[in-house]
Task: structure prediction
Amino acid sequence: MDYKNYNVEDFILDEEFNRWIKTPSIDNNNFWENWMIRHPEKSQTVLLAREVLLSVNYQNELPSDEDYKQVLHNILKIGNKQKSNSRTMAGFQSRFKRHSKVYLSFAASIALIICTLFFFKSEFISTGERPVASRFITKENPTGQRREFRLPDGTSVHLNAESQLIYPDKFGDARRVHLKGEAFFDVIRDTSRPFMITSGDIETIVLGTSFNVRAFQNSNEIQVAVVTGRVKVYELNQKLKKAPLILLPYEMAVYHNHDKTLSKRIFEGTEVLGWKDGILYFHDANFNEVKEKLEQWYGVTFIFEGVTYPKKLDPYKDFNASYQNESLETVLEGLSFIFNFSFKIKDKVVVIN
Result:
């Protein structure tokens, strides 16, 4: 089912969506949480529809006339459109009686939309408390920016440049986040609530550990590198068919996007993890790889004066170096000696000549 074009009413009338609200299970919870993380622009719509259905607390009984009147009174009051026209009330009531649950849900959603209350605790009939839906938070870094923050459970996150993390403002039975780019996680241990990261075509599941996930959209690989603890890595489309890849400290899972294969290898710490400590690391990197990394790290753009590559610049020469919290100019001085070029920096532009 393609839910991308659904509005509030579509979700309210959808059989699978209703099943999730009325009889939640591990499977449908995982499906809808994952779907909202993958489509954050629709999460408010989903959560609003969920609140509407939760607010209609009739279960299998048909509501009484007094219930109809009370619902209608509150809807009209919320929308600031109360009228004394008895024919209007009778017309609404007649339609509600023919399609009790559907029209109550629809009417409630209209009232909520009018009030723009995406998260509310108002009651239509029942005076009991209802669960309050989570909202999703997006942390996003442009080029040249890295930051550290904590998730609602206390988990520490280092988010790299050109990276995005989406997570709920509070976690439920599972702690699920969605990553684009690169992040290092130091996860608070909670054996009752696994921590799950969706990144591209793979899912990483842990209980409490520290590890790095690299999943840039323009990369041919997704990497999961473990520092402490034990990690499970799944291919999303093979989760029910294949056992997970188990990673121990200083083991890395590599998912190859081109052929959809998952492999494991040992990794070198500084090369994979140095970025979070301000270490810019190059190992057998050619000029294009160095250029792309510097553009991401410092938030600059490289241009060549007059030609694509200066004649004396060898783009395929290997470059090995490590810099910690160094300026762009210092790094470029070392590069210019190795690759035989001169440069000048103008604001956020590096001109190679």
Q: What stands out?
A: Residues 57-63, 78-90, 95-102, 111-133 have pLDDT under 50 and may be disordered. The longest helix spans residues 100-115. The chain has ten helices and 18 strands. The chain has three domains: 8-115, 136-271, 278-352.
